[in-house]
Amino acid sequence: MIAEKQERFVLGYAACALAGCLWGTGFFFGKIALAQMGVEHMVLYRFLFACLALLPLLWQYPAKFSAAEWRVLLLGSFLGVPMQFLVQFYGLSLTTVSHAALMVGTMPVLLAVAASLFAHERLDTVGWVALVGSTVGVALIVLGGTPAISDGRGPSIVGDLLVVLSLVIALGWILLNMQLMQRHPPVVVTAYGLLSGAAMLGVIVLATRGAPPVQGVSGRVWLALAASGVLCTASTTLLWNWGIKRVPASRAGVFLNLEPAVGSILGVQLLGDRLGPFAWLGGGLIVAAAIALTTRGHGEPVAIME
Asked: Is 301 a member of any domain?
């Protein structure tokens, strides 16, 4: 019995860790695709590839939402897919991969604040210190960058803050999904939420930007788009949701910190980004704040996604 429980925890943590690492590659693949197409078309292709990976779930998990629940799902999908990703990757187009990735390090702290405001979970002294430290970290990053080598564009305050804004939008998606997951299997909410969000994204992009390019797109970009859709969207969501079912959510949250770490390393090592000393200090504060918040909780697994 004890061995089975330990195995469940090990596999759950492994799934969450792999999801965090794969999420960290999203900005890297996105930056490659942005070299040959606009933000809107890049995001649309990302979700088209993700949908191809998720379509088999529709036959295995039919939707049984009421009319009111469909409205909640569609509102969450609108926030979580077209709004979040268009804002986020427009921000990426204005800054570096390393800066964008480090901005994502604010997500665990934002989740803690959301829990305090909407789930009535109180932040203790350490929590508030972590929140202040993370905010200072963001300020150091947006003010302490040096130009990137990869494309001649350096970090920008506007780009960095747009990435943070996209995370605030994502919180709305998370909170709405949590409502639905109290009554429906998490995998159903995840699959139908991403697919409906991708449909909305397609309508918006086709109406405003026209059809995405097909000719003149290099094989390198197609591979980056496929990887961002299958690995960074569909697979990460399923891995994370499977893992969070098996380990305490407060402990699993620490693996979100792998995303900014992996993303910033890829930006520096493969795209020639540079991080100034203040940016490194700011990133350290963000990650330290997130770790302080996500490693303090204890309890049983909370099944909010699958």
From this structure: no
